């Protein structure tokens, strides 16, 4: 009986932690994907020939 009560309390704590951490995890994942999209795609489209950042350019300048 004591083991059952202890596991129920632990499950309650785990459920509370999941309810608190799950939205935070979703927000962090969304921010991560949005940042990756802007950093890779938007910067590459605005900086096609590597004037600002050669590492992100789609068409790097060829050396003469």
Automatic annotation (TrEMBL):
Keyword Transmembrane helix attached: yes
Highest taxon of source: Eukaryota
Keywords, comma-separated and alphabetical: Membrane, Transmembrane, Transmembrane helix
Membrane-crossing residue ranges in chain numbering: 21-40
Listed name of the protein: Uncharacterized protein
Organism: Rhizophora mucronata (Asiatic mangrove)
